[in-house]
Each structure stands twice: as C-alpha cells, then as structure tokens.
C-alpha cells in the first residue's frame, strides 16, 4: 500500500560509481507531495544518474528510493505505476508513430483501449502533435521527440512526474503549454520533479529546488529559502563556482 502521508519521493543515501568515477555520492532528498521540485546542477553533477536510480532505470550501488512510501527497488512494478518518467537519453520505440507510441504506453499500464484512445487524442492536441500523430517517431525533430516522450509519461495519469530536461529543444510556445500542463497537474494534487539548466525557468515555475554538485546535494529547500536575496542563477553560481571571467584564448579574438 502507498502511504498517504509519505513524501512523493524520498531518496536516501543513493550512491553510484562508474569505474573509478563516483557519479552519485550518498545523496538524500525529500520531495514533498504536491511540490513542483527543480533539480539543478552543473554538467556531470549526477542529476540524470540520480533520477535514473530514483525511477528504476539504473540500479544503485547503495541507497533507497521510496515513491509515495513504496520501496522502488523492492516493489518496482507497484512503485513504477505511480511514476511518469521522461528520461534523458533513453531510446523510445521510434519505429512506431507518435500516436502508436503513446497508445502502447497507456496499454502497458493496463488502461482500457477506449480510455487510452481518448487520452492519446487529448495529449496530442495539448502538445500540438496532432499533425504528426501518424509520423514515425524516428522522423520527429528533437523537440517533437521530447513532447511525445512527455505524452508517454502522462498517459497513465501518474501521481509523480519525473522529468529530466523536459524543455530542452522545445519551442517557446510548446514550452509555455507544457508549463501550463505541469502547473495544472501540481494544482490538482500531482507532484513534479524536473531537472533543468534554465535557472530563470526553475525560479518562476518551481516551489522547491535542490542544487546538486559532485553527486551530492549542496542545498535544498523552497526556492525562496535557497535563493535568499539573490536570483537563483546568482546563488547557483555562488554555490557551484567555476566562473572564469576570461576573455577566451588569444586566437579567438578578432581585434
Ligand atoms: N553510463 C555511464 N558510464 C560512465 N560514466 C557515466 C555514465 N553515466 C554517467 N556517467 C558519469 O557520471 C557523472 C554524472 O553524470 P550525469 O549524467 O548523471 O550528470 P548530469 O548532472 O545529468 O549532467 P548534465 O547536466 O550534463 O546532463 C558524469 O561524470 C558522467 O560522465
């Protein structure tokens, strides 16, 4: 049974190494139910690795992921039924059309065919993919692929959405539509955790944020707590460092 008082996602002591490289190092994070949670961090910080372990795509070396109180690695089917996952870099069945792919995902989650058809039509319309419904996903642009993957994540009406870089390559109108969908989803009791490099977007869209670097959480809390008196972007740079203030190499200067 899922525990109604449990956080939507509770990560405890997650750890993963690839050879000598420690990608995620004893990472713990609590995502409250009903929150819109941003996960930010520099390239290679361990965000994708963390989200992959949290959602059952990658087995951790150590640690636990509880989804609404259900231990994901002990009861994967039950936990995964609660999650809508848009992961970075995982291959889709791209020899299906967009419509077939979302339908297939809905059927995999045990929905009735008629219900799936209705939801697929709604999602294709919401994401402005109606014209491309009959096109093979392999022929989609990067942004269209992102949107069809998001439709797949939404079709079974999960309680928790885990979205790795959902806005990457997406045009501004579609991005605004996606933001509206996600905001409405949170207002109606859902929980979203989203990784992004766009600080301004996270500051405007999310109510909570965690800054990850070197595989661990540097700071986490409400967006206002984390940013204090500065912008999230300034706070991020302050926490993570790495600004060089260099003009670039000599050979790159035109004058
Ligand atoms: N399958 C893998 N094999 C080897 N190393 C990996 C693998 N996956 C990730 N890594 C390494 O683990 C570290 C964390 O990578 P990860 O993709 O989780 O970072 P990220 O925060 O999502 O980065 P980005 O913002 O650039 O997408 C990096 O140093 C990366 O090179």
Q: If you compute it from the alpha carbons, what radius of gyration comes out, rounded to the nearest whole angstrom? A: 19 Å
The CATH topology assignment of the largest domain is: Rossmann fold
- Sheet of most strands: 6 strands, mixed
> What CATH architecture of the largest domain do you see?
3-Layer(aba) Sandwich
The gist of it:
By secondary structure, this protein is an alpha/beta fold.
Question: Secondary-structure blueprint of this entry?
Answer:
Elements: E1 9-18, E2 21-31, E3 36-40, H1 47-55, E4 62-67, E5 70-71, H2 76-80, E6 83-86, H3 98-108, H4 113-126, H5 142-154, E7 160-164, H6 172-187, E8 191-195, H7 199-205, E9 208-213, E10 216-222, H8 223-227, H9 232-240
Parallel strand pairs: 3-8, 3-9, 6-7, 7-8
Antiparallel strand pairs: 1-2, 1-4, 4-5, 9-10
Helix pairs in contact: 3-4, 3-5
Residues 18, 21, 23, 41, 43-49 line the site of adenosine-5'-triphosphate.
Describe the structure using short key phrases:
255 residues; alpha/beta; Rossmann fold; 9 helices; binds adenosine-5'-triphosphate
Structure, explained:
This protein is of the alpha/beta class and 255 residues long. The protein has two domains: 1-82 and 159-255, 3-Layer(aba) Sandwich (Rossmann fold), CATH 3.40.50; 91-157, no CATH class. Helices cover 35% and strands 24% of the residues. The strands form two sheets. The protein has a six-stranded mixed β-sheet with strand order 6-7-8-3-9-10, with helices on both faces. A hairpin with a 2-residue loop joins β1 and β2. It is globular and about 60 Å long. The structure holds adenosine-5'-triphosphate. Adenosine-5'-triphosphate (ATP) binds at residues 18, 21, 23, 41, 43-49. The site of adenosine-5'-triphosphate (ATP) has 11 residues, from β2 and α1.
């Amino acid at each position: 049974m899922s525990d109604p008082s449990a956080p939507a996602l509770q990560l405890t002591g997650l750890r993963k190494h690839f050879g000598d490289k420690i990608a995620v190092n004893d990472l713990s994070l609590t995502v409250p139910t009903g929150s819109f949670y941003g996960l930010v961090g520099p390239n290679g910080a361990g965000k994708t690795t963390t989200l992959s372990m949290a959602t059952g795509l990658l087995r951790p070396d150590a640690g636990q992921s509880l989804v609404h109180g259900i231990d994901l690695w002990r009861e994967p089917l039950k936990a995964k039924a609660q999650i809508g996952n848009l992961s970075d870099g995982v291959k889709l069945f791209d020899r299906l059309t967009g419509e077939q792919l979302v339908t297939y995902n809905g059927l995999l989650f045990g929905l009735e065919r008629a219900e799936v058809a209705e939801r697929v039509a709604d999602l294709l319309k919401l994401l402005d993919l109606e014209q491309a419904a009959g096109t093979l996903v392999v022929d989609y642009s990067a942004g269209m692929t992102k949107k069809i993957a998001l439709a797949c994540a939404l079709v079974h009406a999960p309680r928790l959405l885990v979205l790795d870089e959902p806005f990457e390559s997406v045009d501004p109108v579609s991005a605004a539509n996606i933001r509206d969908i996600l905001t409405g989803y949170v207002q109606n009791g859902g929980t979203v955790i989203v990784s992004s490099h766009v600080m301004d977007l996270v500051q405007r869209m999310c109510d909570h944020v965690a800054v990850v670097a070197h595989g661990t959480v540097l700071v986490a809390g409400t967006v206002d707590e984390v940013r204090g008196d500065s912008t999230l972007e300034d706070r991020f740079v302050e926490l993570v460092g790495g600004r060089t203030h260099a003009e670039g190499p000599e050979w790159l200067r035109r004058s």
